[in-house]
Input
Amino acid sequence: MSSDLFYALTGASLFTLGLYALIKHAHILRKILAINVMGSGVFLLLVALAAGGQQAFDPVPHAMVITGIVVAISATALALALMLRLREASGLAVLPDTSPEELSEQLPEAPSDVASKNNGKNA
Amino acid sequence: MSFTDILTVLLLLAGASFFLAGTVGLLRFPDVYTRLHALTKADNLGLGLMLAGLALQAESWTVVARLLLIWVLILLASSSVAHLVVRTAQQKGIRPWKR
Amino acid sequence: MLAQSFSWQVTVIILPLVAALLCFMLPKWGRWLGLVMAFAITGSVIVLAYQVMNQGALRYAVGGWGAPLGIDLYVDGLSLLMLMVVALVGLVVSVYSMAYFKAGKAVHFWPLWMLLWTAMNALFLSADIFNLYVTLELLGLAAVALVALAGGVDALGAAMRYLLVSLLGSLCYLLGVALLYHSFGTVDIALLAERVESTPAVWAAMALMTVGLLFKTALFPLHFWLPPAHASAPAPVSALLSALVVKASFYILLRLWLEVFSQDSTAAAQLLGVLGAAAVLWGGVQALRQTRLKMLIAYSTVSQIGYLFLVFPLASLMAWQAGLYLLLSHALAKAAMFLAAGNILCFGGHDRIADLDRVAQRLPLSLTAFALAGVSSMGLPFSGGFIGKWMLLDAALQSGQWWWVAVIIVGGLLAAAYIFNVIGHSFTRAEISHEAKPVPAIMEWSALVLALAAVLMGLFASWPLAVMDIGAPFGGGGS
Amino acid sequence: METLTLLSWAFDVTLGLTLMWLAWRALASEDLFKGIVLFIAFGLLMALAWVRLDAPDIALAEAAIGAGLTGALLLGALAKLEAGAESRSRRSEILPRPADKTKVFSGLLVFLLLALVVMLVYAIVKLPPLASGLSAQVAENITASGVSNPVTATLLNFRAYDTLLEMAVLLLAVLGIRSLAVVQEPRGREPGAVLDMLSHLLVPLLILVSGYLLWVGSYAAGGAFQAGAVLAATGVLLLLTGWLPGAWFVGWPLRFLLIFGLAVFVAVTLVLQLFGASFLEFPPSLAGSLILLIEVAAALSIGVTLTALFLGGRPQPEPPSSGRAEKRNTSGTQPS
Amino acid sequence: MDAVYLAVALFLLLTLVAGLWRVLRGPTAADRMLAAQLFGTTAVACVLLLAQLYQRPSLRDVALVFALLAAVAAVAFVRRAWREKS
Output
């Protein structure tokens, strides 16, 4: 059970964690975070398997991961811009046919309410 | 364990203790301002001592210069961020903690 | 054929990329530049076709490094036909878009469309699974940006959902690539085909890559993102998405199943067949229930994609060729349908099927295009769809799996039902008749040209079938 | 020696578990801002993981892009999200999805995910300890590639085609964003003495470090992407301090800079093809300098592109004098 | 000597994990951002220790980039994403 295998398993679990959050949460920003976490998981797996123990240094997975990171940030930037446009058009940063009970679980804690509630307690 | 090694170990441990102090301060202190105060300790002294320790082990002067540059940058960043946070916190009316 | 200095495969990729840069740099001449480049790209695809038909499959080592280290470009009958259908549909859609987009939107449409074309050409030529990941990502992001160009609430919502599904598909695919690379030390398809043996890692990679590509191909349970995206996008974009973009991920799946995952896939093939059958029936029924024309056509895409997956359980040479033939004729027919729908939308300001106000009399060309395209998707004789379905029926009967025959026939009936439903309404007079905007002739003719091409594929079937055999993509994957 | 392996084992386990816990908390946090801060910490730890996995190039890329840019991008998006918070009142009616989203569906979801994890773990554990991937081929061709850092050699020579397409993906993201939104940045509010001093000191140093990373990329960890990301951090810092590109720059000069990297890459390879080289083939003698030329152009272009991604829209020079710009103005910098 | 570097690096990692509690509980957004700032510095120290352990000079560039970019996220927070209503 070398440490690189452990990183590979961490990568696999990050991928699954991200997938669960991507499906579970209604707010699009959280879905975008989930996609980023899944991407990090896959990259971790890609490099961890190459780094196994005594093997020589294999640069190809490293090049793939750097390409992946740049692709990930461009996808994230486009997703954020699209989310803001959708939010401005439809008033809510959620996918069009999100069911009400899903929504209710998100909305009361919209950031501005939470911050003000907290602040009241602290001041 | 030559003399410089021992000195390095001592410096590293001292630096680590300041990091610990910074973290404990961050967790224990009651409001933003005091936490900030604790945090900057970790930056300048904690990191400073550690980098001094590592500089002893450095194989060439360029490495020492690089370490120094990193330390100065961290100082610059953390002090200005600390100032910005405090100024904005006051604007937002987060009042310091009173017993 | 080793790397000669100038290769038409490279030109077919670099031309649209350069076109995208130029269209972005010179927005005022974007339209004309785009059109000229569309003709140039189609020309280079024709020259490449000529070259391939003479010299057979071509392998081009990019950078001169060769397979395991560098990336190879590989073109055989299968990828050549895909390139040609992309060029044909792309050219006609470019002509259509000249008149469709107003100045404001046109500035953004042309660079995005050219990058989409680059992604498709690069995808059909690449022989490297990680390179396919990058082209898939380029394809997905370009398609999402084009859908979002329509700007309405539903377009933006559909584009957002499409983007998330596309990214999820790409990440599943990439995870499969990682497992394959670390099992066999290479990402080149030909080398993988030689080295692959069935280990747990290969099963996992096969499952992950298949699911990732099914997300992007919108097969039945994973199709939820397609109808809103294809219906709310601008008409030329819907045509491109339904005809070409959805087929690109199917092409990769086909390539992988033919060469890399060919041994231990009988059970999985049956599953794909069942999902395909479900898609055919579900898409047909949903299309019948739609009230808007573009939604009807989008659900018809879901149904037609189902047909393509009926090929996997049959897995005979005849079946693969039938699947490819269906794919090509569907691309032409679907593009024609969406362009015709775009004309009707421009003309009447809405696309509610019930209120189609004497469209037949007032938009004869567009409705003929729609009808001819309908003929092809129904599979009536003298159309590409007919040839494809006939070969599929033949293959199913030969392999003794008669239940797929039932699915094909019921699917054809459903298609007939929803097509005639639309054509019926277009002859009647709507209660609320409203003033109609004239539709530029070029838009109507481009829809008709594509519909005629779909029918022509029925009449001249021998040529595409001959091209399919170059490089024997289906016969044991010999190169 | 035994204590070292024990300590490194403990380091890895702590890092791995913290990564998983951070990811879970970041995605499950009820407050978006807390989620983003946890995600920034996640990026930091990922960079540590790359250092531990002996991948300095990726650690650099993760540090520059993950910790710096993604954090700023997410915080900027959150700001614009809440700037429109008041507009949440006119919420359009949401079509309720059929009520199958009950417990049975999430139960099925958890079951499927467990099956996925088991499949993945089984596949990974059963992976044969592969010889060493492509390291042999890279080692023997490294001399002909013109650079001695194997990762840069792979990125810019062996698999240069991937890098070309990847820069097209970056350009595509900018095109998509420019078609989505128009940004009428009002004259940024005064940055205040300290921020001004910080940017005056940091910006030249960032540009210097970016140049250094570009140069060092040929023999050690570094390269065009890392240098471009550091350049982008400069751009982001300038934007945050309220600096805005002049009206002259926003037109074709900005567009030219956005495509500059890709244009130089394509131009170099087309010129080489005139001299008989195949596509993306760099003759060994010239390879080093050509790769550097491409890297300089790419770094510049990536820096401007990533900054444009942070800006989040097509910069409009000045809002038209005749009253407010049309309603769809998405400038988000409400004075806090 | 190497064991000392790794031990101190492990210790720093543990302080970082402890600091995460402040991010979770921190009432105001400023507390969370401060904790992130501390994590940046801790990460710099960790990377430098590992650089010395592995005798790999390029890791020092990673620390340098960390130091440079530590400010960017924090400034983005202060200038844009701070929405406390007093």
